[in-house]
Design goal:
By secondary structure, this protein is an alpha/beta fold. It has helices at residues 16-34, 47-53, 59-67, 90-100, 124-127, 166-181, 197-209, 223-232, 244-257, 296-310, 313-328, 346-356; strands at residues 5-12, 38-42, 70-75, 105-111, 131-137, 147-152, 155-160, 186-191, 217-222, 239-242, 265-269, 275-279. The strands form two sheets. The chain has a ten-stranded mixed β-sheet with strand order 2-1-3-12-11-4-5-10-8-9, with helices on both faces. Strand 11 (265-269) and strand 12 (275-279) form a beta hairpin. Bound molecules: 3-isopropylmalic acid (IPM) and magnesium ion (MG).
């Protein structure tokens, strides 16, 4: 029996609790099959925490996370809190948890499942072979720079500042090179070095680190061009590394290549093995509580957690194989079903994946 690992569970809002419940079901089955052992501790986060505790990220939730070996997050936000002031927005909690837990690296794989190729808005022949990872810097840049309003010459002005230091760029770029080295050995660094000073620093640092990875082929692409190339030649990308805001935008674009955002998992990592794992999709308040949401992205996030935080490769692979098997036998939740009338619900999909799991 493996050592007991502590998992902080922050299910959040909307469909968060539904999809997290299915992921936990899968984790429990892997305890049985692979001799793993988990202890789950639940914390309030996001809109529900605003309602119950008056803040999106209560200190006790943060403590639960800091005490854990990994965090499993559902989703946060919803129309109910959209007009709140900054301190009382679920998104502020999300930025806070990233910063507080030192999660500077956000890894978002976008791979096209063969049996779901038709779900994308792009032509199947353009998508053929698409399997890329966006590595997004997560705790710096314009998201965390100084922000303020002031009285300017022409009335009220707003200022957001974008700051990166060398160390911040180095650590994320090294991580991206490491990931590329274990994959197809191709790294695309995305910036706006023709305009932005932070991007010129970014590019300098990338070029300085590159000789440490002689086997990895490096290309620099400007962010506007990258947005275009992602639609034109998605399969030619392997690992894309970029700063916080560009990564936010490009990772949504990359997710949409697959046509099935309900399938995409993500990891947010810091210096050690600790990580936060969550589906790429949001809280989908329009379908919350109906039992029709797709739990696969959260279940695949567990596979990422097993691989990246715990090194449980066999169990990670088993989860991915079980998901493939269920999809290949034709089962779909509504979001990815062509024939909506035969779609399965959230718990049914979870049960199917649990049943397909093999040691
Ligand atoms: C994401 C989201 C967040 C971000 C929002 C909700 C603050 O879009 O995780 O990509 O911009 O980082
Ligand atoms: Mg985003």
């Amino acid at each position: 029996m493996a050592e007991t690992k502590k998992i902080a569970v922050i299910a959040g809002d909307g469909i968060g609790p539904e999809v997290v419940a299915e992921a936990i079901k899968v984790m429990k089955k892997t305890e049985e099959l692979f001799g793993l052992s988990f202890e789950f501790e639940h914390g309030l986060f996001g809109g529900i925490a605003i309602d119950e505790k008056g803040t999106p990220l209560p200190q006790e939730t943060l403590d639960i996370c800091k005490n854990a070996d990994a965090v499993l997050l559902g989703a946060v936000g919803g129309p109910k809190w959209d007009n709140n002031s900054k301190e009382l927005r679920p998104e502020t909690g999300l930025l806070g948890i990233r910063k507080e837990l030192g999660l500077f690296s956000n890894i978002r794989p976008a791979n096209v499942f063969d049996c779901l190729r038709e779900a994308s808005t792009l032509k199947p022949e353009v998508l053929e072979g698409t399997d890329l990872i966006v590595v997004r810097e997560l705790t710096g840049g314009i998201y965390f720079g100084e922000k303020f309003r002031r009285e300017g010459e022409h009335g009220e002005e707003a200022v957001d500042t974008c700051v990166y230091n060398v160390a911040e760029v180095e650590r994320i770029v090294r991580q991206a090179f490491d990931i590329a080295q274990k994959r197809r050995k191709h790294l695309t660094s995305v910036d706006k070095a023709n305009v932005l000073e932070t991007s010129r620093l970014w590019r300098e640092v990338v070029n300085r680190i590159a000789p440490e990875y002689p086997d990895v082929e490096l290309e620099h692409v400007l962010v506007d061009n990258c947005a275009m190339q992602l639609l034109r030649r998605p399969a030619s990308f392997d690992v894309i590394v970029t700063e916080n805001m560009f990564g936010d935008i490009l990772s949504d674009e990359a997710a949409m290549l697959t046509g099935s955002i309900g399938m995409l998992s993500s990891a947010s990592l810091g210096e050690g093995s600790f990580g936060l794992y969550e589906p790429v999709h949001g809280s989908a308040p329009d379908i919350a509580g109906q039992g029709i949401s797709n739990p696969i992205a959260t279940i695949l996030s567990v596979a990422l957690m097993y691989r990246l935080t715990f090194g449980y490769e066999a169990a990670a692979q088993a989860i991915e194989d079980a998901v493939s098997e269920v999809l290949n036998s034709g089962h779909r939740t509504g979001d990815i079903a062509v024939d909506k009338s035969s779609a399965v619900g959230t718990t049914e999909m979870g049960d199917l994946i649990v049943a397909a799991l093999k040691a």
